[in-house]
Design goal:
It is a single chain. The protein is of the alpha/beta class. It has two domains: 251 residues, Aldolase class I (TIM Barrel); 181 residues, no CATH class. The strands form two sheets. The protein has an eight-stranded mixed beta sheet with strand order 4-3-2-1-8-9-10-11. The chain has a three-stranded parallel beta sheet with strand order 5-6-7, covered by helices on one side. Helix 4 links the parallel strand 3 and strand 4. It starts with 9 loop residues before the first helix and ends in a 7-residue tail after the last helix. The mean pLDDT is 92.
């Protein structure tokens, strides 16, 4: 049986190159926050403390020196060691391409220093950039793109069709940004795949299907769509989400489109295995970010641009001289390393029958509650609505196209009926039953 593709993941790719190596330090993501400036004023942006500051080249070079020094020192348990096969150099702002020459110089320094010192981190290294595309065609940006294209994964953020995009992503004067973004999206199609990130909030849920169908017309390699963590979603929001995803599902089935769509992933909506007690958010020790001044944090979401200087200072883990190298920062490391799914979650979340795929942001936990180890559950109802839609999509698609597998409706009836009417819930159950019968009749085993 054919299977629908999954979204590409560079970490997965590296682990496939080195089978049997489970250490999460195999590939490390390091973020350079090159500027606090942005040329847009997106209304859902989590960076609430933008400003005029930018990183200096000297600071960027010293961060690169630290990465190579960690590799050379090869300390057991170090963030980077000689077990680390490669790195993702993530450049972000604000809007990172406002500092394209700086990014180019930092990358140039990284590859040269790795060559001079015999550091293998440059082998397979990726340069990752998410941009709003507003200055993509400027000469200095194009010079950077041309120079580093073989290593570059560049994503232009587009939230859907022009009306929706321009309702949320505007410049300082209130003008929409879609026209420039869509041109940049098509021009950058060869840089790591034709991709974009679509972000939705309750206000944009009613236009979700139009937005996704528009992006499908742009012939992407995959659809990466999700909802923001910050809003508190309601059962009513979940109903809108479900209805919109049904429209998307019907379109994908009717057109026989074979494409990975993150928001309809088959793998969500199952109980979390008891032995799977990981904290999947990289912002609790799995990532590393440096702000414009060279101070280090567990990820960008902890930087001052996101949560302000006072909160950020308490979770700072070092600087370009070294990380986790003082008693205070060592305590932060030990605390982050000890966080698990169960340590931060309520019994309701731990035992949720559809818990798989219900994510969290460790930094948003910290911003909202003051504690990384206290899970914020704002997305609970959105996740439940998405789970029901995924069941609709895969069961119906299996019956019509046979290129996926049936999916059990595991959301409890009492929760489901807060989202959809009883007749719709019973229809989902019938759809599941029919798909299971056909699956077993055709020789399927435990794919449900």
């Amino acid at each position: 049986m054919r299977e629908l593709p999954r979204l590409p993941n560079y970490n997965d790719f590296i682990h496939r190159l080195y089978p049997g190596v489970a250490d999460r330090s195999l590939v490390r993501e390091v973020t350079f926050q090159v500027t606090n400036q942005c040329n847009l004023r997106c209304d859902y942006c989590y960076e609430h403390h933008k400003g005029p500051e930018s990183m200096s080249l000297e600071t960027g070079k010293r961060i690169v020196d630290l990465l190579i020094r960690m590799w050379e020192d090869d300390k057991p348990g170090g963030f980077i060691s000689k077990k680390t096969k490669t790195v993702i150099l993530d450049f972000i702002g604000g809007e990172p391409l406002l500092e394209a020459p700086l990014i180019s110089d930092i990358c140039d320094y990284f590859f040269k220093q790795c060559a001079l010192k015999g550091c293998t981190l440059a082998s397979g290294a990726r340069i990752s950039i998410s941009t709003n595309g507003q200055n993509y065609f400027e000469p200095q940006v194009q010079a950077f793109v041309k120079r580093f294209a073989p290593f570059l994964s560049l994503n232009v953020s587009i939230d859907g069709h022009k009306a929706l995009h321009d309702a949320h992503r505007v410049d300082a004067a209130g003008n929409g940004s879609f026209d420039k973004a869509i041109k940049a999206y098509h021009a950058a199609a060869g840089l790591g795949g034709k991709q974009t990130k679509m972000t939705f909030v309750p206000a944009s849920f009613p236009q979700m299907s139009e937005a996704i169908l528009f992006m499908l017309e742009q012939n992407p390699d995959f659809i990466a769509a999700n909802y923001a963590y910050e809003p508190i979603y309601t059962p009513q929001d979940a109903r809108v989400l479900y209805d919109q995803l049904k429209i998307v599902s019907d379109h994908l089935i009717a057109t026989k489109r074979v494409i990975a769509c993150s928001i309809l992933d088959h793998n969500i909506g199952y109980p979390v295995a008891k032995e799977d007690d990981k904290n999947y958010c990289g912002g609790s020790g799995g990532m590393l970010a440096f702000d414009t001044q060279g101070k280090a944090y567990p990820c960008l979401r902890y930087c001052p641009i996101s949560i302000g200087k006072e909160k950020a200072e308490k979770i700072c883990i070092g600087d370009m001289q070294g990380i986790y190298n003082t008693p205070h920062t060592a305590k932060i490391r030990d605390y982050l390393d000890a966080i698990t799914l169960s340590s931060q979650s309520t019994p309701e979340c731990i035992n949720c029958p559809v818990g798989v795929g219900c994510g969290w942001c460790s930094a948003y936990n910290y911003e909202s509650t003051g504690d990384v180890n206290r899970r914020v559950t704002n997305i609970c109802w959105a996740h439940k609505g998405r789970t029901l839609a995924s069941c609709y999509y895969h069961n119906k698609r299996y019956l019509e196209l046979r290129d996926t597998t049936p999916k059990a409706v595991l959301l409890p009836e009492k929760d489901a009926l807060q989202i959809i009417p009883r007749e719709e819930y019973e229809y989902l159950l019938r759809l599941q039953t029919e798909a299971e019968k056909v699956f077993l009749k055709e020789g399927g085993e435990d794919g449900i």
